[in-house]
Write a structure and sequence with these properties.
Elements: H1 7-22, E1 28-32, H2 39-51, E2 57-61, H3 64-74, E3 81-84, E4 97-98, E5 109-113, H4 114-117, E6 133-136, H5 143-149, E7 156-160, H6 173-177, H7 187-194, E8 200-202, E9 205-206, H8 211-221, E10 227-228, E11 235-238, H9 246-257, E12 259-264, H10 274-289, E13 293-296, E14 299-302, E15 308-312, H11 315-329, E16 340-343, H12 344-347, E17 352-358, H13 369-372, H14 374-380, E18 384-393, H15 396-402, H16 420-432, E19 436-438
Parallel strand pairs: 1-7, 1-8, 2-5, 2-6, 3-4, 3-5, 6-7, 9-10, 12-18, 12-19, 15-16, 15-17, 17-18
Antiparallel strand pairs: 11-13, 13-14
């Protein structure tokens, strides 16, 4: 995108490029997207356009939630939308919701998770041969999952975010890597490895992330540059109240820059850091008691509990922090769970106005490959539309120097957009130039006010 090209024009040109490639003879088309660039919208635009030519279009998602989201949006059109699902899953009562593909004949678009499509067999449905299959979140889908659904489709459109978390396993990676193929490679990488001439289209604009965050995330986690489609003041929080301590400073800094970092004192701590849980709960309470207004262009409304999320790394952290947040906000009349606390894996694909993100390396003595994974930090710091506070124990730079990048290099493995060690260094360096606030020890345990 050139300096004279508007974000809307750049995005429209990318969508036009995708549509043009649909008329080519390529067996696969890969669309790479930054966070919040409109992947789901693009999937639905393409599906509707192909369906209007009289061809049934299958949409392959990675979760039931993603499938349900597509169905809700697509049913606003005049097309007949089928929801294919497992026998044990209930997506709601609707005549075009069914677990048997044969009952959805005549539907223009059929949506189902990859796990459901994998239970079908082309030989059992010889009369159904879609012109194009669309895979949503193609970088979350494993090559093993792709192999299970590929027989149905002559051509594929794969849409996904290469910077997010990849498929994972709890098995010994060395054992799996000893095989000729890598079953947890992403569907997009697998297709590109086998069809290297497949066109790739880059979506150049994020409509979720504000400009400062977009620059930081693009530099740290992506090879392809992208920009924000928002003006610096288009989304903001106001009023923010007086600055009395480091908690207030962090809220003000996040509102001004869209992202900041709040550092607790440097200390090696257990996985469940009680001071961290208390600090996060205090931040949530401050956000809710300031009577902040969320401003998005001409729209104005109060910042509510549903607008805030806390992103963590481990389920043990989630449970401890959820309890601390629920205890802190009970006096505000909120029920348990009104403020969402969850892991990066489960927050992937979602968005909120304000996110408090616990840094994966906070308080650790080491820097393991799990905690260094670039996709995990990328997910945590790209869920917000307005403001993000990255909270951590100080000392991460020392950890990174003490545990340099030593990841093994596997033959034929695709090169990640950014290795975790470099991504963390780039991200932290960028935040140093934005806003970093230190939380003094006397504020770790909130005092009555």
């Amino acid at each position: 995108m050139t300096e004279t090209t508007s974000p809307a024009s750049a995005h429209a040109a990318a969508v036009t490029n995708v549509m043009a490639n649909l008329d080519s003879d390529n067996r696969a088309i890969v669309v790479n997207s930054p966070p919040g660039a409109g992947k789901s919208t693009l999937v639905r635009i393409v599906a509707r356009q192909i369906a209007q030519t009289g061809n049934t279009v299958p949409i392959i998602t990675q979760t039931n939630d993603q499938a349900d989201d597509h169905v809700r949006a697509l049913r606003q059109s005049r097309l007949r939308i089928g929801r294919l699902h497992g026998v044990e899953y209930n997506p709601g009562r609707h005549p075009d919701n069914h677990h048997d593909l044969r009952q959805l004949q005549g539907c223009d678009i059929i949506v189902a998770p990859a796990a459901k499509w994998a239970t079908l067999h082309a030989r059992e449905n010889p009369d159904w041969s879609p012109r194009l299959g669309i895979i949503d979140e193609a970088y979350q889908m494993s090559s093993a999952a792709l192999a299970a659904v590929a027989d149905f489709h002559y051509r594929l459109l794969l849409v996904g975010d290469p910077g997010q978390l990849s498929p994972f396993t709890t098995a010994d990676m060395r054992t799996l890597r000893s095989s000729i193929t890598w079953p947890l490679d992403t569907a997009a990488h697998t297709v590109l490895a086998r069809h290297p001439a497949s066109p790739q289209v880059e979506l150049p604009v994020t409509w979720r992330l504000p400009p400062t965050t977009a620059r930081l995330v693009a530099r740290a986690f992506y090879r392809q540059h992208f920009t924000s489609g928002l003006s610096p003041a288009q989304r903001r929080l106001s009023p923010l109240g007086l600055v009395r301590d480091a908690y207030d400073q962090a809220i003000h800094a996040a509102a001004e820059h869209s992202i900041c970092m709040l550092e607790l004192p440097d200390e090696h701590v257990a996985l469940n850091d009680p001071d961290m849980a208390s600090a996060i709960a205090t931040l949530v309470s401050r956000l809710l008691t300031r009577r902040i207004t969320l401003i998005d262009g001409e729209e104005r409304r109060p910042l509510e509990a549903r607008d805030i999320a806390v992103g963590v790394v481990h389920t043990e952290q989630r449970d401890r922090i959820q309890y601390a947040v629920d205890t802190m906000t009970a006096s505000l009349g909120l029920a348990s769970g009104d403020i969402l606390v969850d892991t990066a894996n489960r927050l992937q694909g979602r968005e909120f106005e304000v996110v408090i993100a616990l840094h994966p390396l906070s308080g650790r003595r080491d820097a393991t490959s799990f905690h260094l994974e670039a996709g995990r930090l990328c997910v945590l710091t790209s869920r917000h539309r307005t403001a993000c506070i990255v909270i951590t124990r100080a000392g991460i730079q020392r950890q990174l120097h003490g545990y340099p990048h030593t990841q093994p290099v596997w033959l034929n493995a695709p090169r990640p957009p950014m290795d975790g060690w470099t991504a963390n260094r780039t991200f932290l360096d960028g935040l140093r130039h934005t806003a970093t606030i230190s939380l003094p020890p006397d504020l770790l345990i909130p005092r009555p006010r």
